[in-house]
Amino acid sequence: MAAVMMMQSVWLSIVISCIANRKLPTVTQVISVITILIGTVLATGLLPFEHTVSIKGLLLSFLSALAYALTIQFTGNVGQTIHPLTKAHLMSGGALVVILCIWLPSLFPLHHIGLAIQWGSLTSFFSMLLPLTCFSFFMPKLSMGIGPIISSLELPSSVIFAFILVNERVTIYQLIGIGLIILAVIIANLLPLRFKHAYQL
User: Fold this and answer.
1) 3-class DSSP state for residue 4?
2) Calpha distance 136→77 (Å, rounded)
3) Which of 57, 113, 136, 172 could pair with 87 in a Cys bridge, judged by C-beta atoms 3.0 to 4.6 Å apart?
4) pLDDT tens profile 149-175
């Protein structure tokens, strides 16, 4: 459920982008978002749904999706004159400050500090520094709404690597969901190009 709520960042990003640019979303974007949301429900193994849901948890998950959507917009639209590496460092530093403000009391006393630094450094590189750097470099080059749709590929990537690295069980529904998400990304990127090429011809 948390993963499903987090993927609401896809349509939230498009809404924020449309408001900021005063443009309506395209039909292709709407179809892609709907396909991604359906694929997300399947890929996360949410069905059949047999658990009670915390309303507070749903709200917090939705707020995290909103924060992620804003992050996508900021990396693409704010500080375009700043070097991408500098922007990534500033955003990572800001995230560190926020995280320390929330979690610092739970860090003491420190246990297994060496192991924590080892795995924490590896995780932070792939989950924070590398993504933000790539976002800062390439997000400004993408057309409105494409970046959030491409970012939805993180869910099928997580499922695939969970299967490869920790031998997690993957159901047929999850495979269908992954296929739908990848299909949505292809539609969002290739379909407009085909129409543009046909129009030019």
Assistant:
1) helix
2) 9
3) 136
4) 777 777 788 778 888 888 888 888 888
